[in-house]
Amino acid sequence: MRLNPTETEKRLWRHLSASQLGGYKFRRQAVIDQSIADFFCPQKALIVEIDGDTHDPVQDTKRDLRLSQKGFRTIRFSNQEVIENLDGVLMAILENLSDMADRWSVSSTPNPSSEEEGLK
Length: 120
What we know:
Order of helices and strands: HEEEHEHH
Structural class: alpha+beta
Largest sheet: 4 strands, mixed
Helix content: 25-40%
Distance between the termini: 25 Å
Radius of gyration: 14 Å
Strand order of the largest sheet: 1-2-3-4
C-alpha cells in the first residue's frame, strides 16, 4: 500500500506531507496497535482514513472504537469527498487537529520511532 497508494491517497498526501497542513507532521501507512492508518498525526493522535469501496463500515466502527479507547481519534472521508471537496477535507482535518490536545509538549517531541503509536 505504501509503495502503491490510491489516487485519493496521493492527492491528500500532497497536502499533508512535509508538515504543510498547519505545521503538523503526518505519517502515511502508519502502524497503530494492530491496524494500519492511511495517515496519522502522532502529535495529536489523529488518524485520517480514506474509505473506498472495499471498506467494511462494521469493521471500521469496531476498529475506531478500539483505537478511541486507546486515546486515538479517527476521522473518515470517502474517496469522493477527497476528489470533489479536497479543500473541505483539509479544513475538517485542521479543525480536528486544532480541537485536540497535544500528546506531548512540542518542545519535547519524543523519539519518532514507530513503536510510539503502539503504546497501550
